[in-house]
Design a protein that fits this description.
This protein is of the alpha/beta class. The protein has eleven helices and twelve strands. It is 34% helix and 14% strand. An eight-stranded mixed sheet has the order 1-4-8-5-9-10-11-12, sandwiched between helices. Strands 2-3 form a two-stranded antiparallel ribbon.
């Protein structure tokens, strides 16, 4: 059981106990975060970034850690999220293995990792933990809360649970509820992990690690993160060179298979399987309709925010653009000046991580107008 914490990560201690939506509580828990820029005297220039399932808090290089971050092209001086103007906070998700307390963390009651004794995690729990960081930094109201993918769900939960906490919102490839297709994919990913004998009911270690299950889970994820258009353009039906081919008669034959294998192997030992299970399931459970008698649009309309932008890629099959359109429509029904942009990116759900030529101007334009 390993945690993967970038250098320069900062930590905020959560109130103890820290209760969870579905029951249970954490004692002595913490949230990992990083910051960029300078907080204004009135604390009115703060932006909160909440992330997808796997990223850490290191979204971009800063004084504490000059290594490039996972959103390096979007965040920094003169960039779309301009840290010459904005004070930016990025929080690692509660339940992760990247510094915030999660199933891989030590349970102070036992001195052993929580494993499956970790409380049932909801998106709302992560939202409340992120707000604890914001409050600890002396920020009464955010200029904007930005959420990518799972973070789009977390951002909406932040706004729902803490009315008035932000003047604006950018929802990037996110949603107000999980759709059946996305639930089905994540269910298969979790099943792949749980059926690996080395998962052992969550009781594994670095020597007996469920690598096969994690590899399969990651491959399934990567397939849905990109689009068929991109798979075609990048790989076509190109086969591996004979000296690269797998000796297994049913082994790797096409370049796309080799790409998935390489991508999976780079991931599996750098993310904890139990954390993956908990965070994945939290997305399936999230549904703003719970707050409005089963009507997701009414749930969105109950959120108090002045301006909003919902953007996504038209090729996204995991969080399709209809969901970002729904976010904009619902927030607009609640009185927000809300806009939707569907971008013609070939790169599917992962477009916000790579297609900066399209996503950068959209985010910059919105923030520049605040």
């Amino acid at each position: 059981m390993t945690e993967f914490i970038p250098p320069g990560t900062r930590f905020h201690a959560l109130p103890s106990p820290f209760p969870f939506k579905r029951g249970g509580a954490l004692h002595g828990a913490r949230v990992a975060y990083e910051t960029w820029g300078t907080l204004a005297a009135d604390a009115g220039n703060a932006i909160l970034i909440v992330t997808g399932l796997s990223p850490d808090a290191h979204a971009a290089a800063n004084e504490a850690n000059p290594a490039p971050g996972w959103w390096e092209a979007m965040l920094g001086p003169g960039k779309p999220i301009d840290t010459d103007r904005w004070f930016v906070v990025c929080v690692n998700s509660l339940g992760s293995c990247k510094g915030s307390t999660g199933p891989a963390s030590l349970n102070p009651a036992t001195g052993e990792p929580y494993r499956l004794d970790f409380p049932e995690l909801s998106i709302e729990d992560g939202a409340r933990a992120a707000v604890e960081v914001v409050r600890a930094l002396g920020i009464a109201q955010l200029a904007c809360v930005v959420g990518n993918s799972m973070g789009g769900m977390t951002a909406l939960a932040v706004l729902m649970l803490h009315p008035g906490i932000a003047r604006s919102h950018i929802n990037i490839s996110g949603s107000a509820q999980a759709l059946p297709f996305s639930i089905a994919i994540r269910s298969l990913q979790r099943e792949a992990i749980r059926l690996d004998p080395r998962w052992n009911g969550g009781h594994y270690d670095d020597d007996a690690y469920p690598e096969s299950g994690m590899r399969m889970a990651r491959k399934l994820g990567v397939i849905t993160y990109r689009s068929a258009l991109e798979w075609d353009g990048r790989f076509g039906r190109v086969r591996l060179d004979s000296d690269q081919a797998d000796d297994d008669p049913f082994g790797l034959e096409f370049q796309v298979e080799s790409y998935l294998e390489g991508h999976a192997r780079r991931f599996v030992r750098f993310f904890d399987p139990n954390c993956y299970l908990y965070l994945s399931r939290s997305m399936d459970w999230f549904d703003l309709a719970e707050y409005a008698g089963g009507d997701v649009l009414a749930g969105l309309a109950a959120i108090q925010v002045e301006k909003a932008l919902a953007i996504g890629a038209n090729t996204d099959i995991l969080f399709p653009v209809q969901q970002q359109q729904q976010v904009a429509d619902g927030l607009r029904a609640g009185g927000a000046d809300a806009r939707f942009i569907g971008l013609e990116s070939p790169q599917g759900h992962d477009a916000f991580l790579v297609d900066f030529e399209r996503f950068g101007p959209a985010v910059r334009g919105f923030l520049d107008a605040l």
